[in-house]
Amino acid sequence: MSERQSLTRGIRRWLVFFIVCLVLSGLTAFPLVTELRWTEDLLSASASPVPEHFPGLMEWITRVREGLDTIEREQPFMLYGTDWLAFAHLVIAVAFYGPYRDPVRNIWVIEFGMIACAGIIPLALICGPIRDIPFWWTVIDMSFGVFGVIPLLIVRRMIKRLEVLERAATAVNPPAVPAGA
């Protein structure tokens, strides 16, 4: 296998991983109320160490679950916002099909994703306190940007190497110019 093929295969593997993570992240935003109920049940089970060792986490999960229950009961249209959040994740995941098909030409999608990951940090730091989010939860939110950018940095570096290889191949074998051009 040539280095170009190997790079392309590696790029595609990382992109599939990233796309799957985006899709899963989006899909989990649809059943938010049910997920929070299950999470609270799991964390408060008799075998769980969470209530004893992490009471702040337990209080936060209960607070969020109670808030979502109230919204679902009294203002269910508000949950439409999380449906849009889910949809946005799915749409963004589709955008990464461009670099999957043609990494060099669509490197801008990777760079867009990197900018979006960086944007998570100021968003969490600004909006977290405004929305009364505990700082430790803000740190968890920021971790999505930090961990999300890692595969994108790897892919970008691989695409840059692939670009150099493609330029070298084009210099050695320039494309044929059609007759009459």
Automatic annotation (TrEMBL):
Alphabetically ordered keywords of this record: Membrane, Transmembrane, Transmembrane helix
Transmembrane segments: 14-33, 77-97, 109-130, 136-155
Protein name: Cytoplasmic membrane protein
Organism lineage: Bacteria, Bacillati, Actinomycetota, Actinomycetes, Kitasatosporales
